[in-house]
Amino acid sequence: MAAVTTPAILLRAHPFSESSRVLRFYTRALGLVGVMARGVRRGASRGRGGGGAFSEGTAVLAVRDNRELQTLQEFAPAKSRFGLARDVSRLAGASLAAELVLRHAGQEPHEALYRVLSGGLDRLEDVPGEAVPAELLALGWAIVQILGFGPEIEACVACGQPQEDGAMGWFDLEAGGVRGPCCRMPQGARRVGPVARQQLGRLLAGEAPAGLRGLGAHLSLLDDFTAFHMLGGRRLGSFRFLEPVAAGEPDASAED
Ligand SMILES: [Zn+2]
């Protein structure tokens, strides 16, 4: 058994018994790790750490190969990220990122994924309310891209022909990318104009474009894309909480 000390982000916690929890961390050194944490429920209620969802800090793990759950020796959160609870869309964005990582990240280190997740959670917590939807889209698409599921947006997904900057296109959900005017429009497909294509490119790179247009369409595209290509048709639970945001309604809880 080896003790591993690593930066870690707590993604999810399940109660296991009166005195223990199963925690899922994304770690810099080991990728996705499940741990049994004994005594933390009582400890947390007395304010002695344990950490809440999305908190980040240093974890000390007793690691044994081929074991489903490792043992958590210590987790010292340096960032609590309590600010994510200020409004529903910040929390839904963080949950969406966690769902994707829990479902698809592996048990091996992935520096870029750790960096995108950590930086994205920081921004979701810190940006002004009106910038939150673009930040959560940037975080979601960046994770999709880093995990290797990113859509094809440079060349026509049907025939491979490179697309000009100003070209109108349609999103071919099943093929996983944008079709150009060179090919027939897929039935019921979303139109992807030049601006939308360029904005999608920025989101895939993890950048939140200012003045993002068509927020509802962007959210439903990420929802449909992740359901079809990453989740076997199941939808990410977090999108349910984003319906008011997608409909253009102000986030009521953000006002206090
Ligand atoms: Zn084509």
Descriptive overview:
33% of the residues lie in helices and 23% in strands. The chain folds into two domains: 79 residues, Beta Barrel (OB fold (Dihydrolipoamide Acetyltransferase, E2P)); 134 residues, de novo design (two linked rop proteins), CATH 1.20.1440. 36% of the residues are buried. The N and C termini lie far apart (49 Å). The strands form two sheets. Strands 1-2-3-5-4 form a five-stranded mixed barrel. Strand 1 and strand 2 form a beta hairpin. It is of the alpha+beta class and 256 residues long. The protein is elongated and about 60 Å long. Helix 2 runs antiparallel to helix 3, helix 2 packs parallel to helix 4 and helix 4 runs parallel beside helix 6. The site of zinc ion has 8 residues, from loops.
**Stretches where pLDDT falls below 50 for ≥5 residues?**
42-49, 252-256
Assembly type of the chains comes to: single chain
Bound molecules: zinc ion
What count of structural domains? 2
- Looking at the structure, the CATH topology of the largest domain is de novo design (two linked rop proteins)
User: C-alpha Rg, in Å?
Assistant: 20 Å
How many E strands? 8
